[in-house]
Task: inverse folding
DNA sequence: CTGAATCCTTAGTGATACTG
DNA sequence: CAGTATCACTAAGGATTCAG
């Protein structure tokens, strides 16, 4: 027997509540909506493309090494370096992940790859124009993080203190 | 029997190669290095903090819903909305993920949570000052993605055409 | 040197059902 | 309404080994 205590809406607070539900939808161009709004599925279409650009690109930038790799490459002379240099600059990255990340970034056109048919193989990676163009927005995020990191840490500590659950975070 | 064909460095191309290895390290403040450089481990210290702020925050922004949620909240009047409104705005998110993402963002201090002890429970979430402050850098990334999305798609297509492997991407 | 191939572990995510 | 709890699945990531 389900008590109806928590039905759709109680008499006194019908439909629209304290906070207005504000159909502000029309105030935004529906172009933006494509990126943020409802229709944003992660399913791939017939071509194999993701259908949510924002989410897909974001998750690329959010993956473990892409940003670090781009920033590392940006610090190299000519925004250019070879495989082993990158490996040295990011000691914690596994060879497998370095290869894979480079490959994905190349696929997206952010870096270019040049292979030299020498006896000890040499491969050089370089930020493309597209890759360079993302540096500024990227650096703004980095700057923001640098500037607010301690604030965030503090926030976490007080939060964890007030919520002394076993384990925090996802799951 | 290992042939020594690929030893450290071949005679004619010793140590420093075509591309100079440029110890440009000194040209960068070592503060930056903390974020990008070698010492960047993902291990947690005794307190449970990640030791690589950049990576950690980036992966938060890169997770499936954080950015979408922040942007959605930013579009609400007063950068404020209740749980069910957010759920409606992001129909594809599961309740579990909405709860978890909101919780993480609250923990980081990007959003605040206010609970009302009413009979049908009401909880309102709002971007904090910190949360609002990340909107601009975030929007720059979004803008960049919007502006370069088709370029990236094109790049991927040509790449996949030239590399007709079974499946691309990681793994 | 620069990868590719395998194997394996686990974190992220979704579906579903239950609760105050 | 706003969550929690469980379970199950997948994909991301690491370690290691093999190869041109």
Result:
């Amino acid at each position: 027997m389900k008590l109806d205590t928590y039905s759709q809406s109680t008499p006194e607070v019908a439909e629209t509540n304290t906070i207005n539900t504000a159909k502000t939808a029309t105030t935004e161009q529906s172009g933006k909506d494509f990126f943020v709004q409802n229709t944003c599925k992660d399913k791939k279409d017939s071509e194999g493309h993701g259908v949510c650009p924002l989410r897909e690109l974001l998750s690329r930038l959010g993956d473990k090494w892409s940003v670090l790799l781009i920033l590392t490459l940006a610090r190299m002379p000519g925004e250019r370096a070879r495989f082993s240099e990158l490996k040295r600059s990011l000691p914690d990255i596994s060879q497998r992940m370095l290869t894979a990340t480079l490959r994905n970034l190349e696929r997206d056109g952010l870096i270019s790859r040049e292979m030299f048919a020498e006896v000890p193989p040499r491969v050089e990676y370089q930020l493309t124009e597209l890759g360079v163009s993302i540096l500024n927005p990227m650096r703004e995020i980095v700057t923001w993080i640098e500037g607010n990191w301690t604030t965030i840490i503090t926030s976490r500590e007080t939060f964890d203190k007030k919520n002394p659950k076993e384990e925090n975070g996802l799951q």
Summary: Residues 1-31, 37-50, 167-171 of chain A have pLDDT under 50 and may be disordered. Residues 6-9, 63-64, 94-97, 100, 121 of chain A lie near DNA strand D (CB under 10 Å from a C1'). Residues 57-132 of chain A form a domain with the Arc Repressor Mutant, subunit A fold (CATH 1.10.10.10). Residues 79 and 101 of chain A are 16 Å apart (CA to CA).
